UniProtKB/TrEMBL annotation:
Highest taxon above the source species: Bacteria
Residue ranges annotated for the EAL domain, each copy included: 24-278
Residues of the full protein shown: 600 to 878 of 878
Protein name in the entry: cyclic-guanylate-specific phosphodiesterase
Subcellular location: Cell inner membrane; Cell membrane
């Protein structure tokens, strides 16, 4: 054991290790600074319904870094989680989304657009989360019915009962919930019964294999049947080709998000998009 500890101690003082630790701390400081400086911004990726065209967007966070340029979540979500900064970051995103909904409410052509925001487990489980969200809605005047919170199956592992209670309360106020990356987690069926959900979001891995792999078609068809039986909306993410979209429609999925329609874009570009119904 002493030998083990000695080895660990040696490894700790390995200069490369030390450099990695320092880089991590520097990044955490940077995120903290970026949050204060308002460098985290939201981009919008359109969500399209087959018959209605553009119905809303998913909000995706970006970091407008002064030296490194525009960074995607890959570069900072993990570090923000480890540093205990993800709750603050998510709340900044949620705030911007609510402010945008309130702005659109005054524009007839955009007043019905919905926004979907990704929610991390640590924010959901924060003691005053529900109160903070309700206060935010009140302050911004955003219509809760146009706000959708995306949660992942892994988020539920922490404390399912507590998650259900909080989701129910928010749902009573009109907020909707979507299960992100659906089909990639573990106990899909059990929680489908217990959670107050509104939407299943088919993970992009199934969409990617849709054309070559018949089993993906079967999985998507089954997911759509399940969703329809449970009166849940279903949306596919990562739709990149017309062929995928056609197969999704053939298998019962009428809502799409993906590069075929648009990448996530800043507000001005999103508002300039003209997305027509598919049929
Ligand atoms: P996600 O919520 O599953 O979001 C979908 C991701 O797939 C986005 O990556 C989006 O840009 C990308 N995507 C969309 N359409 C396509 C497509 O057709 N093809 C391909 N290959 N990719 C597509 P992004 O923006 O890099 O975000 C990655 C992940 O970071 C998100 O996955 C989400 O889990 C997380 N994330 C993003 N914004 C937030 C946030 O505000 N808070 C938290 N906690 N997580 C966030
Ligand atoms: Mg998402
Ligand atoms: Mg997803
Ligand atoms: Mg994902």
């Amino acid at each position: 054991e002493a030998k083990q500890a000695g080895r660990n101690a040696l490894r700790f003082f390995d200069p490369r290790m030390q450099q990695a630790v320092q880089e991590r701390l520097r990044l955490e400081d940077e995120i903290r600074r970026g949050l204060t400086a308002g460098e985290f911004v939201i981009h919008f990726q359109p969500q399209i319904e087959r018959h209605r065209g553009l119905v809303g967007a998913e909000v995706l966070v970006r970091w407008q870094h002064p030296q490194r340029g525009l960074l995607t979540p890959f570069h900072f979500i993990g570090p923000a989680e480890r540093a205990g900064l993800i709750e603050a970051l998510d709340f900044v995103v949620l705030t911007q989304a609510c402010e945008q909904l309130a702005t659109w409410a005054k524009q007839p052509s955009r007043a019905a657009l919905t926004l979907a925001v990704n929610l991390s487990a640590s924010l959901l489980y924060q003691a005053d989360f529900v109160d903070r969200v309700l206060a935010l809605l009140k302050r911004t005047g955003a219509n809760p019915r146009l706000l959708k919170l995306e949660i992942t199956e892994s988020l539920l592992l922490d404390d399912m009962e507590e998650a259900v209670v909080r989701m129910r309360t928010l749902k009573q106020h009109g907020i909707r919930f979507s299960i992100d990356d659906f089909g990639t987690g573990y106990s899909s069926m059990a929680y489908l019964q217990r959670l107050p959900l509104d939407q299943l979001k088919i993970d992009q891995s199934f969409v990617r294999q849709l054309v070559e792999d018949a089993s993906s078609q079967t999985i998507i068809r089954a997911t759509c049947a399940l969703a329809s039986g449970l009166k849940l909306e279903v949306i596919a993410e990562g739709v990149e080709t017309e062929e995928q979209r056609t197969l999704l429609i053939a298998n019962g999925c009428d809502m799409f998000q993906g590069y075929l329609f648009s990448r996530p874009v800043p507000l001005e570009a999103f508002e300039a998009l003209e997305l027509e119904p598919v049929t």
